[in-house]
Amino acid sequence: MGILSDTLEDNKERSGQILSALSSTSVELPTGPSAALPCLICSDLVTDEEALQRHILDRHRHLKVYLKLNACVLPEVAFIDQPVSELIAVLLGDRTGTLTVTLDGRRKRSLNLTPGKPTSLEKYVPAGYVGTLGIEITIGNIRRDFVVYCRTQPCVNIVELDEAIWQFQYPLLEGKEPDWTRFQQHYLQDGSRNALEKRYLTGIYSYILGCCLEARSIPHAGKHLEEALGQLRPFSTALAHTARCSLALKLNAFRLLKHCGPGSRFYESNVFFNTQEAAIRSDRGLGRGAPSDRGLWIDDFLEMLLNAVSLFTAEDFDGAEKMISEMRNSPYFKEPNNRDKVILLDARTARARQRPEAANKAYQRLVHHPLFGREAERYREESD
């Protein structure tokens, strides 16, 4: 286990930007049949806009409503660096609701919502508006709140929050349990903190909790990891970026790594898992990137996976095979997503070493995999 702070290549945090622009939270879309759009509610990937609408209706109907802002599904917290050109609210289900628009906390307009009928709201936001846009929706006893920072960033003391996270996660470096109760009481339940601060802290808390539960093979660990990904999606800080990349690897949501360039610790993993072949050659090998003494805790398995992929791309196949063996003996290997990644790495390593029998054996286990199955089937056909 160790501490990692990944490179923020656009350097947004240094310029004072706490939230990523809504338009930039979408992953880079590949071409062809594997093209994917991310759901900004849960981060799941779908094939196109029509599939996204079906996904929202099937998966998120319980949320009762969703909004679209400038052609993007609106999460509960967002920042935009462009004018509001489109803002639509859509009720799901069969109950009516009410919606209130506020600008910098002042009520602008209240109106009724009809199920299944899109309601345009952009006319209630002045052209060129700079400030906080609030949208409150009530459906029976259910209330949903959305906050959009329009061409302005919120005031959040990220240095203070990151220091609290550092103190919380530090015991993990000594093989000890974090003080879950103290962090909850002092930070997550602190009434003086605003919703954005709590969301940031809750996201990191869910990430660390999910990782710890995963090591113990507790079934609902994945739920906490998925929640963490959703909670941290709006943020552009180094910790949030590192956590999202780590979660993308853990949850096999590899398209979320598409923005990781050569300066990122996750670059090799981006190319390795987002192409049918690991078509890069890297000489950096083990220890790629510079760990930080004020970064995010990552578990042993994730650290081994990052190193194994780096060793593979450096064509150090002896080192990669040693790391594969260590990962197989890790308690994290029991988790299906982790196991499948190791099998793929094993298959490609055997293939690179021209060991067709071992490669075939590994690929056989991936033939029906939703992400790796096409590669496995093609290799088996070519080797027949």
Q: SSE string, helix = H, strand = E?
A: EEEHEEEEEEEEEHHHHHHEHHHHH
How large is the share of residues in beta strands?
Answer: 15-25%
Mean pLDDT figure: 85
Radius of gyration equals 22 Å
Number of domains: 2
The strand order across the widest sheet is 6-12-11-8-9
Description:
By secondary structure, the protein is α+β, with helices and mostly antiparallel strands. The chain has helices at 49-59, 158-173, 180-188, 195-215, 221-232, 238-250, 267-274, 300-313, 317-328, 336-352, 356-364, 373-383, and strands spanning 2-4, 37-38, 45-46, 65-69, 72-73, 77-80, 87-91, 97-103, 106-113, 119-120, 131-139, 142-150, 296-298. The chain folds into 2 domains: 1-18 and 155-384, no CATH class; 20-150, Sandwich (Immunoglobulin-like), CATH 2.60.40. Helices cover 40% and strands 16% of the residues. The strands form 4 sheets. Strands 6-12-11-8-9 form a 5-stranded mixed beta sheet, with no helix packed on it.
Key features?
384 residues, alpha+beta, Immunoglobulin-like, 2 domains, five-stranded mixed β-sheet, four-stranded antiparallel β-sheet, 12 helices, 13 strands, 16% strand
